[in-house]
Amino acid sequence: MKPSLALRVFLALMLTILSGASALAAFTPAQVLNYTRAGDLHVSPDGKKLAYIVLSYPQDWKPRVRILDIATGKTDEITPKGKSERSPQWSPGGKTLAFLSNRGGHTQVWLMPAAGGAAAALTACKNGVSDFHWSPDGTSIAYLAKDDAAPSEDEGPQIADDERELDRLWTIDIATKKVARLGETGYRIDEFQWQNPSRILVAATARPRVEEHTDAIYSVSVPDGAIAKTSQPPLPFEDLMVSPDGKQFAVQATRAKGPQPRDLFVGTIGGSDLRDVSQPVDRAVVQMLWHGNIIFMSVQDGFYTRLYKLSQGAKPEEIKLPLSVGAFDVAQDGAIAFVGEDFNHLQEIYLRAPDGAIRQLTHMQAVPVAGHLAPTTLFHTKSFDGTDIEAALVNPAHAQGKLPLVLLVHGGPSSRFTAGYYWETAWAQMLASHGYQVLMVNPRGSNGYSEDFMKANRGDWGGGDYKDLMAALDAVIAKGKTDPNRLGIGGWSYGGEMTMWAITQSNRFKAAVAGAGVYDQQAEFETEEAPQGDEWYFGTPWEHPDVFARNSPATYIAKAKTPTLIFDGEDDAANPTGQSKGLYRALKHMGVETRMVLYPNEGHSPRKGSYNVDMFQRLLDWYDRHLGNAR
Questions:
Q1: What is the pLDDT of residue 610?
Q2: Contacts of 538 by beta carbon, 8 Å cutoff, 6+ apart
Q3: Torsion region of 588: left, alpha or beta (phi above 0 gives left; psi -120 to 50 gives alpha)
Q4: What's 38's DSSP letter?
Q5: For the chain, which residues score pLDDT lower than 50?
Q6: Which candidate, 452, 453, 426, places its Cα nearest to that of 440?
Q7: Each residue of 239-256: pLDDT tens digit?
Q8: CA-to-CA distance for 188 and 6, rounded, in angstroms?
Q9: Where are the domains of the chain?
Q10: Is 175 helix (H, G, I), strand (E, B) or coil?
């Protein structure tokens, strides 16, 4: 019987809807990469405005400054098209916004009236400014910049450890534009904060040539530039902060003396009472700020980031928020502006009022993926030695039959996967929309868990951490929805290294994507720009060559059979490009299918939007071809 006209129209309409939904579900690289990330939040002193930065791949990941009216939600982006601006800071009185901008060429400090009007450059440094802070009285700004006599990067021979290349500490008077240089030569200043209008606290080292953690806290006199050591926090440390009354300071350091700062230490300036105030939480601190006598801090807790407040003499108290927390700031009335996200929500900025009510302030996202994300499930499993491992499984919506799976490995190693939408989860969501399961594991060595868990892969990259990855993978396969014959692996940085490692340890993966990884630990140590972290894990190659060899994929490369796609930036200084080239040459020599793609004028993490789109298309095609998932 022929269906009625009404039924035929209905069926045609449903077919159109379903085909449209299917097309929407299969995200393109350009779609999944068209998202916005926000950070560096600063509420104005009167609580009426919020300055912050945004980054997006359509803008080549250049930071841009936006100002939001908190009452109305009206947002203005003050950064001219194609320029890069960051570090927005309100003057103490709130009448002026200062920020770093390259709109005039080299990055300088610029000032703009808070009430509106044209911005103007305050500094005019030949080689640009790297950091700055307002003085407590708002009459001057201190900043870090090289001396104008320092050679530029494209001028003549480049001399290693040239003392002239070090940033100096300067002050500039807002009214008169008078500039003064503070401190002495021979110091490398990494951070600074004003203690009071006449003194500046700096994190610096008097041994800049030594490629180890040697920073200490120094006090610099503004009137005469005299410098004196005041404290030695545990090394390494970072994120120097000074209390509002100028009597105390705080840094992120570590009880384990590495591999990275994760604990919050507070002490009296010039005193000997420095103590770890975050120990009761035993999770890595992300950001902290002082608000009167209260310290607010965000901490990593598994895949989520929580917000705590710490009153003097009390244990940290969690501030319950509905989303994982990114950057945050606290207004004078106690309202909290924060970036919120999770597996189901892309980043937006929210305001938690003093009474606990939460209001969304921004609507930044224009990406098609918003509201159409593949479901992500957290689960725990036991590794080979009983260690509890947390992982996240992204499942394609409405998929049937046994599915191909890609094991995605995070960077670090002392990093983690988080509940949110960023580069790695965009990778995962794109694959899921094309019918793949994607497994994201936080193995031992990841941050977001106990200090012992973070230290557990010391000298053992590819040991327990690799077994953790395999344990989580086996747990997923045991559920019966995964095709064990269509497994892929991939990752960037440490994730790229674990990908390189995996193809030398097992032939179970049919496709691999290795981005900016480490192939030979000794060669990498000898050529990377900052070997201090690797030294904590392995020592030095001339003292422990066996450790470096044992932890190198190069040692076992003859066992590799997996087709491998390799990515890197040509100017990668963290894991120099020679590492990717070494893997490529070895695989070619042994007849393993491989392809290497290098992106010019890019470092460890390519920022140009078109390069990232190209990268995502290539990795999708690679998995499709080798895992039999081509559409």
A1: 98
A2: 459, 521, 525, 544, 547, 548, 551
A3: alpha
A4: E
A5: 1-24, 631
A6: 426
A7: 999 999 999 999 999 887
A8: 78
A9: 376-626
A10: coil
Nearest to 307 by CA among 55, 49, 41: 41
* CATH code of the domain made up of 376-626: 3.40.50.1820
CB 219 within 8 A of CB 269: yes
Asked whether 41 and 625 are in contact (CB, 8 A), the reply is: no
Give exposure, 329-359, as e/b (b: 16+ Cβ within 10 Å).
bbbeeebbbbbbbbbebbbbbbbbeeeeeee
Query: Rounded to whole angstroms, how far apart are CA atoms 545 and 73?
Result: 58
Amino acid, res. 74: K
Other CB atoms within 10 Å distance of the CB of residue 546 = 8
Share of the chain above pLDDT 70, in %: 95
Strand, coil or helix: 308: strand
pLDDT tens-digit map of 436-454:
999 999 999 999 999 999 9
Q: Give, for 76, the enclosing helix (H) or strand (E).
A: strand 75-77
Average per-residue pLDDT for the chain: 93
Q: Is 472 left (phi over 0), alpha (psi -120 to 50) or beta?
A: alpha
DSSP 581: H
153 Cβ contact partners less than 8 Å away, ≥ 6 residues apart? none
Contact partners, residue 481, CB within 8 Å, separation at least 6: 395, 402, 403, 437
User: Quick one: which of 188, 261, 259 has its CA closest to 227?
Assistant: 188
Residue in the block written with tokens 């400054």:
65
pLDDT score, position 5: 39
Beta bridge partners of 343: none
Structure tokens at 568: 């890197």
Give per-residue pLDDT as tens, 186-244: 999 999 999 999 999 999 999 999 988 999 999 999 999 999 999 999 999 999 999 99
- Rounded to the nearest angstrom, the gap between the alpha carbon of residue 150 and the centroid of all alpha carbons in its chain is 30
Q: Which amino acid, 540?
A: T
Radius of gyration of the chain (CA): 26
- Residue of 486, 488, 439, 495 whose CA lies nearest to 466: 495
Phi, psi of 46 (to 5 degrees): -85, 0
Closest Cα to residue 518, out of 574, 598, 561, 558?
574
Q: Which helix (H) or strand (E) is 340 found in, with range?
A: strand 336-342
Locus of tokens 């930036």: 569
Which are the contacts of 608, defined by CB distance < 8 A and separation ≥ 6?
60, 61, 599, 602
> Reading across the β-sheet that carries 238-242, which strands appear in turn?
238-242, 248-253, 263-268, 275-276
For residue 508, count other CB atoms closer than 10 A to its CB.
16
Residue 109 near residue 145, CB atoms below 8 Å: no
